[in-house]
Amino acid sequence: MKTEFSFKDLYAIRKVNLIPFSESVIINDKIDYTEIYLNVLVFVPFGIYISILKPDWSFIRKVIPIAATSLLFETLQYIFAIGAADITDFLMNTLGGTLGIIAYFIARKIFKNEVKTNKIVNILASIGSIGFIILAGILFLANV
Q1: Residues 6 or more apart from 91 whose CB is under 8 A from it?
Q2: In 14-113, which residue ranges form alpha helices assigned H by DSSP?
Q3: Neighbouring C-beta atoms of residue 42, cutoff 10 Å
Q4: Confidence of residue 95 (pLDDT cuts 50, 70, 90)
Q5: 141: burial class by Cβ within 10 Å (0-12, 13-18, 19+)?
Q6: 116-139 residue pLDDT tens
Q7: Could you tell me if 21 and 31 are in contact, meaning their C-beta atoms sit under 8 angstroms apart?
Q8: Residue from 10, 7, 6, 9 nearest 78 by CA
Q9: Which residue in 37, 66, 41 sits closest to 51, CA to CA?
Q10: Do 35 and 23 meet the contact criterion of CB atoms below 8 Å apart?
Q11: Nearest CA among 69, 33, 42, 51 for reference residue 128
């Protein structure tokens, strides 16, 4: 995360991109799919968790907080000048959360039981969290 901040340079480093799949994802005249995939991937758990926490909410009602959170992140990037506020990021984050909602819905259909589905998701999330902590520790120790 970029932490460069200067009030006198604010006008020069703030940027908003409202054209999807343009400037921010074009590198050497080609679309860089890595950033797109990562923006989708990072919000998938949000969709899964909101589906666990609010099972009675409609699909659209679950998507709204995901989109609002993504919009908040892009707005904060603009306000604090820590990256370009980008419509592509907003769209891909929202898509990721939506895919998480769909993945949870499919898991519930497969396991036919909300309690069993939640248990499996929690086990997978715990394994993922432990893996992330180990990876972060390795990366930290490699840079010390």
Answers
A1: 20
A2: 33-53, 59-79, 87-111
A3: 15
A4: very high
A5: exposed
A6: 999 999 898 889 889 889 988 998
A7: yes
A8: 10
A9: 66
A10: no
A11: 42
What is the end-to-end Cα distance of the chain in Å, rounded? 19
Asked if 43 contacts 70 with a C-beta cutoff of 8 angstroms, the reply is: yes
Element housing 11 (H / E): helix 10-13
Q: Any idea which residue has 């998507």 for tokens?
A: 63
Q: State the greatest distance between any 2 C-alpha atoms of the chain, in Å, as a whole number.
A: 58
Exposed, middle or buried, 94 (CB in 10 Å: 0-12/13-18/19+)? Answer: buried
Instruction: Record the tokens describing residue 112, joined without a space.
Output: 């036919």
Q: Give the span between the Cα atoms of 64 and 84, in whole angstroms.
A: 22
Exposure on the CB side of residue 24, measured as CA atoms within 13 A: 20
Q: Is the pTM of this model over 0.90?
A: no
